[in-house]
């Protein structure tokens, strides 16, 4: 491994401050994260976003998303500020035209959080959207599969293994979330922010950030009782 400068990186023999081989993270960057999900099912995208942004659950109030809307939130990663711009979506048809524009986004570093509800039969099945994202988005897009409503144990129809199997098929991380209890909600966004920060500062000789391993080590596995 070639190392430039001293271990502390403070100065070189000729007295100049070395060009650091640590790529600085640009805190001004905004990363788009798009919430999508099984169509025709209220999977909880808006509630998860509200939970992450405001730490609250909308309860029984059904808030149908009017149009596409976004919220900004800054996530702290290793003492750096990673800005996420999180887009909520409603309705597959409307979404389709919007996402096609995103797919062409030259900036890259686009993230998709794909939601399914653990209480709906759509969950655990092969998803048209996951296929579409894979086909159209840039290769480096970040995708994560979330099985929401993990608190609703009695109504659950999707087994954790089914979610894990689907995620494996697409090579994406999976976790079960609940906008109601908040379980794993912050983790989903933090994992994305961490991945983005690592990508932006990654050195060629450095090992990649293993988002799957990070999630596996951090996630709360929902037990049989939805807790
Ligand atoms: N029990 C439970 N209900 C949820 C959860 N997330 C959303 N909901 C409920 O599911 C319904 C649809 O949520 P919403 O966020 O509007 O779904 P969206 O259409 O995907 O944005 C609402 O009645 C929410 O209160 C959750 O994690 N647990
Ligand atoms: Mg919504």
UniProtKB/TrEMBL annotation:
Essential cofactor(s): Mg(2+)
Domain of life: Eukaryota
Entry EC no(s): 3.6.5.2
Keywords: GTP-binding, Hydrolase, Lipoprotein, Magnesium, Metal-binding, Nucleotide-binding, Prenylation, Protein transport, Transport
Keyword flag GTP-binding: yes
GO molecular function, one term: metal ion binding
Family: Belongs to the small GTPase superfamily. Rab family.
Protein name in the entry: small monomeric GTPase
Organism annotation: Amphilophus citrinellus (Midas cichlid)
Taxonomic path: Eukaryota, Metazoa, Chordata, Craniata, Vertebrata
């Amino acid at each position: 491994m070639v190392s430039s400068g001293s271990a502390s990186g403070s100065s070189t023999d000729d007295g100049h401050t070395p060009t650091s081989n640590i790529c600085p993270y640009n805190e001004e960057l905004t990363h788009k994260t798009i919430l999508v999900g099984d169509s025709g099912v209220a999977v909880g995208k808006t509630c998860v976003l509200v939970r992450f942004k405001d730490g609250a659950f909308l309860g029984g109030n059904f808030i149908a998303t009017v149009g596409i809307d976004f919220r900004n939130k800054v996530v702290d990663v290793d003492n750096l500020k990673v800005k996420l711009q999180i887009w909520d979506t409603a309705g597959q048809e409307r979404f389709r035209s919007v996402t096609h524009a995103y797919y062409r986004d030259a900036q890259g570093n686009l993230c998709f959080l794909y939601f399914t509800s653990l209480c709906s039969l759509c969950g655990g099945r092969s998803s048209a959207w996951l296929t579409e994202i894979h086909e159209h988005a840039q290769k480096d897009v970040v995708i994560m599969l979330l099985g929401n409503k993990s608190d609703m144990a009695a109504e659950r129809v999707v087994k954790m293994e089914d979610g894990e199997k689907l995620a494996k098929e697409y090579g994406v991380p999976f976790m079960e979330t609940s906008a109601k209890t908040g379980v794993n909600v912050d983790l989903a966004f933090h994992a994305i922010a961490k991945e983005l920060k690592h990508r932006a500062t990654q050195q060629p000789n450095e090992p990649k950030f293993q988002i799957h391993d990070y999630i596996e080590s951090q996630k709360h596995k929902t037990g049989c009782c939805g807790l």
